[in-house]
């Protein structure tokens, strides 16, 4: 790669990366979503057990009852308590993290985020009783809005409410308790006016929205913001563009996916949740692109799909250095940890390996998308797995045996693409090592025989 | 100009965060960040003659022995300058870099320099008046390229005993 081109690319991309990595809102979104992650993974495990792709098992769970309730519905309780209300966790997480970024009380940040969000939420669900012909309005917290459909407005509520809270606090409009009052008591009094201000503002927002054709802020944001964003996110072009950007950043030593995740994750989560809801309802899965598609089919063994690189290093390289590194890094690599080769090979700032490092994930995305679009491989079912789940297992759990097979194929394809590049480095090292062998000095420096 | 670098298990590519007990070793060819620095080494007309490495646990468990062995090896290799780092925001490695840099400066006639990110505040405050610590980004943050360039420039200034210390200070904490 020509140095001039790389310099130009760096000077263009770095300001964007720096802006995104330091932006308070984006950091709060990224870290806020992380809070919901373990909850969704645990919920997924229960979901997976009750929907394990073996029909007799599913029938058994459905037909066995305990105190009049089927075992399957006990399992779906866990899914309901995690996936169906996932936006609540996300709103708490973002409110908390944004308050942290703004240097204000984090727990109140989380609380007012949820409070303001609920203030805008229509507390009614339309329900048709059995035998009745007309639907009736029932007062309730609508599961629709506390699930994936409520995420985007939740993010906005979290930012706006914490902003108001902080603004009032900074104005000094707080009740100050005399010295000697326990700090927690003091804090709750200090929060009174800022919370009051948040409630007043959101009270008026709610009233204003009832006067619009949408009737409430949730419908408005869903139709105006979330749906269009999801449409853009649910496209092959967006996914490939984002991965291209992330991997170029990685080449410069910047955690690329960390940056793109802050923008792209909310969209992917919403798409996943819609797939999961469809799975539960027994309907066809609507979105090829989603969280699992990114985590399980775009890269294997960490950024750059370095598991393929490691396999090429392990089986086809002859130099001592690369063989040794391959041996050490392959086990962590299977679990998605590729730090040893990111810095040790290294991949960062190493132009020889940059091309396959950027290309392989793009090809993975392209091939996976096509195979799923034509129906060869089932679309990911929305079950969230930890990113450390090894391929083949992850593919099987998410897309059946076809998914596992696709992963094997993509890893092998990656090995083929990485092969000529790593071989170039390998040949160079073999030459170096041969040179060293002809010299009395050894490649390895031993510090063992030093005595004092 | 000859340079020796000192890395932990991650930077040397010999292990993950958990492989702390990697024994002391070395290569007489550039590895890890040594390769990342290639273009900047050319700018200062320098060559890495050895990369020494050690797991952070191995070092912290037996500081005196490891430090002595590293100083002795540095003396034996006799480079113009030693670079410890970049340690990014890895705390244990940053501590190792700072302490070994100081040991090399104190017990050999070869200058040494460390590099870490601002997250290692405690270590930086303790050592910044005693050794040169070049600023680098935390892991995954922007600015690695320019940090490596600064590290090379600072190393050169130290190696040639640049009278104008301000040149180095500009890159340091």
Task: Detail the topology: elements first, then pairings.
The complex is a heterodimer of chains A (452) and B (173).
Chain A: H1 3-22, H2 24-50, H3 55-63, E1 65-66, E2 69-70, H4 71-82, H5 86-101, H6 106-120, E3 124-127, E4 136-139, H7 143-146, H8 151-171, H9 183-190, H10 192-210, H11 217-233, H12 236-251, H13 256-281, H14 291-298, H15 306-316, H16 320-334, H17 339-344, H18 351-373, H19 393-438, E5 444-445
Helix pairs in contact in A: 2-4, 2-5, 2-13, 5-6, 5-8, 6-8, 6-10, 8-10, 11-13, 12-13, 12-18, 14-18, 15-16, 15-19, 18-19
Chain B: E1 2-7, E2 25-27, H1 33-36, H2 38-43, E3 47-53, H3 56-61, H4 63-77, E4 81-84, H5 91-107, E5 112-116, H6 121-127, E6 133-135, H7 144-159, H8 166-169
Helix pairs in contact in B: 4-5
Structural write-up:
The complex is a heterodimer of chains A (452) and B (173). Chain A is 71% helix and 3% strand. Chain A has helices at 3-22, 24-50, 55-63, 71-82, 86-101, 106-120, 143-146, 151-171, 183-190, 192-210, 217-233, 236-251, 256-281, 291-298, 306-316, 320-334, 339-344, 351-373, 393-438, and strands at residues 65-66, 69-70, 124-127, 136-139, 444-445. In chain A, the strands form 2 sheets. Chain A has a two-stranded antiparallel sheet with strand order 1-2. The relative contact order of chain A is 0.09. The model of chain A has no long low-confidence stretch (mean pLDDT 89). Chain B has 173 residues and is of the alpha/beta class. Chain B has one domain (2-171): Response regulator (Rossmann fold). Chain B is 43% helix and 16% strand. Chain B has helices at 33-36, 38-43, 56-61, 63-77, 91-107, 121-127, 144-159, 166-169, and strands at residues 2-7, 25-27, 47-53, 81-84, 112-116, 133-135. In chain B, α5 links the parallel β4 and β5 (112-116). The mean pLDDT of chain B is 93. Classes of the chains: A mainly alpha (452), B alpha/beta (173). The A-B interface holds A 3, 10, 14, 17-18, 21, 252-255, 258, 321, 325, 328-329, 332, 337, 339-341, 343-346, 348-350, 429, 432, 436, 441-448, 450, 452 and B 10-17, 19, 24-29, 31-33, 35-36, 39, 50, 52, 68-70, 72-73, 137, 139-145, 148. Chain B: This is Glycine/betaine/sarcosine/D-proline reductase family selenoprotein B. Chain B: InterPro entries: GrdB-like, Various_sel_PB.
């Amino acid at each position: 790669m020509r140095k001039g081109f790389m310099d130009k690319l760096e000077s263009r991309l770095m300001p964007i990366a720096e802006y995104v990595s330091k932006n308070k809102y984006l950091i709060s979104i990224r870290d806020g979503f992380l809070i919901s992650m373990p909850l969704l993974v645990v919920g997924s495990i229960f979901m997976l057990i009750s929907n394990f792709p073996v029909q007799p098992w599913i029938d058994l769970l459905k037909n066995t009852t305990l105190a009049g309730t089927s075992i399957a519905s006990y399992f779906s309780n866990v899914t309901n308590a995690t996936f169906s209300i996932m936006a609540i966790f996300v709103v708490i997480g973002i409110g908390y993290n944004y308050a942290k970024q703004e240097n204000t009380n984090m727990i109140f940040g989380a609380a007012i985020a949820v409070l303001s969000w609920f203030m805008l939420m229509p507390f009614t669900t339309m329900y048709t009783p059995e035998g009745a012909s007309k639907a009736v309005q029932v007062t309730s917290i609508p599961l629709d809005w506390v699930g994936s459909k409520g995420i985007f407005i939740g993010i906005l509520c979290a930012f706006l409410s914490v902003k108001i809270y902080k603004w009032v606090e900074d104005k000094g409009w707080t009740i100050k308790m005399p010295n000697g009052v326990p700090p927690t008591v003091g804090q709750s009094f200090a929060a009174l006016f800022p919370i009051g201000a948040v409630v007043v503002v959101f009270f008026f927002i709610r009233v204003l929205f009832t006067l619009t054709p949408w009737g409430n802020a949730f419908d408005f944001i869903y139709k105006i913001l979330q749906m269009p964003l999801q449409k853009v996110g649910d496209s092959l072009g967006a996914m490939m563009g984002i991965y291209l950007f992330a991997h170029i950043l990685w080449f410069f030593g910047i955690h690329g996916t960390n940056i793109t995740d802050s923008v792209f994750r909310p969209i992917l989560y919403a798409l996943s949740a819609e797939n999961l809801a469809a799975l539960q309802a027994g309907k066809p899965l609507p979105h090829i692109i989603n969280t699992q598609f990114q985590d399980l089919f775009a890269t294997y063994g960490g950024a750059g799909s370095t598991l393929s690189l490691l396999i090429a290093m392990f089986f086809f390289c002859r130099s001592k250095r690369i063989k040794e590194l391959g041996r050490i890094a392959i086990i962590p690599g299977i679990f998605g940890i590729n730090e040893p080769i990111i810095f040790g090979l290294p991949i960062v700032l190493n132009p020889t390996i940059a091309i396959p490092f950027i290309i392989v994930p793009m090809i993975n995305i392209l091939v996976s998308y096509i195979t799923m679009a034509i129906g060869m491989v089932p679309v990911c079912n929305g079950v969230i797995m930890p990113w450390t789940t090894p391929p083949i297992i992850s593919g099987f759990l998410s897309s059946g045996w076809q998914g596992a097979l696709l992963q094997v194929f993509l890893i092998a394809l990656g090995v083929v693409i990485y092969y000529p590049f790593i071989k170039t480095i390998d040949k160079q090292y073999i030459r170096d090592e041969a040179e060293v062998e002809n010299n009395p000095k050894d490649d390895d420096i031993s510090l063992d025989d030093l005595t004092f | 100009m000859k340079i020796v670098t000192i890395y932990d298990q991650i930077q040397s590519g010999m292990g993950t965060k958990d492989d702390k007990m990697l024994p002391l070793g070395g290569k007489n060819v550039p590895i890890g960040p040594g390769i990342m620095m290639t273009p900047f080494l050319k700018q200062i007309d320098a060559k890495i003659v050895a990369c020494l490495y050690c797991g952070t646990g191995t070092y912290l468990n037996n500081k005196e022995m490891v430090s002595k062995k590293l100083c002795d090896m540095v003396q034996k290799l006799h480079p113009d300058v030693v670079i410890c780092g970049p340690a990014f925001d890895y705390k244990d490695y940053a501590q190792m870099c700072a302490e070994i840099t100081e040991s090399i400066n104190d017990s050999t006639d070869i200058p040494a320099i460390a590099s870490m990110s601002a997250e290692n505040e405690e270590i930086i405050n303790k050592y910044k008046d005693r050794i040169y610590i070049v600023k680098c980004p935390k892991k995954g943050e922007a600015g690695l390229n320019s940090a490596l360039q600064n590290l090379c420039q600072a190393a050169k200034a130290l190696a040639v005993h640049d009278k104008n210390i301000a040149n180095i200070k500009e890159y340091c904490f």
